[in-house]
Write a structure and sequence with these properties.
Largest sheet: 3 strands, antiparallel
Oligomer: single chain
Helix content: under 10%
Structural class: mainly beta
Shape: globular
Number of helices: 2
Radius of gyration: 16 Å
């Protein structure tokens, strides 16, 4: 830096952080959860088409919009057995 300090601006992350490409594994699905409690399955194909398969899920959360007005939702990869059986929706990908 200009002041001579060695501080670097890096984001803390761990090697185990989930990546978007993992959502394409067999029997896996990508889900978003808003703070309002709404959950929805998310189609990762638009992001994969943009070459974002190696992005962490955390880095993509700001690209989601909920019908409640929230401009961010948490992403997680779930197995098919973990997916809720009832209705879901209301969270959309905002590229």
């Amino acid at each position: 830096m200009a002041d001579g300090s060695r501080q670097q601006l890096t984001r803390d992350w761990t090697y185990g952080e989930a990546r978007l490409g993992w959502a394409t594994a067999a029997r896996s699905s990508l889900w978003a959860r808003c703070g309002c409690g709404r959950e929805a399955a998310v189609d990762p194909r638009p992001w994969l088409a943009q070459g974002l398969s190696r992005q962490t899920l955390h880095d993509l959360e700001h690209r989601l919009r909920c019908v409640c007005g929230a401009r961010q939702a948490s992403l997680e990869i779930r197995g098919l057995a973990e997916a809720p059986g009832g209705g879901s929706g209301g969270i959309h990908v905002f590229r």
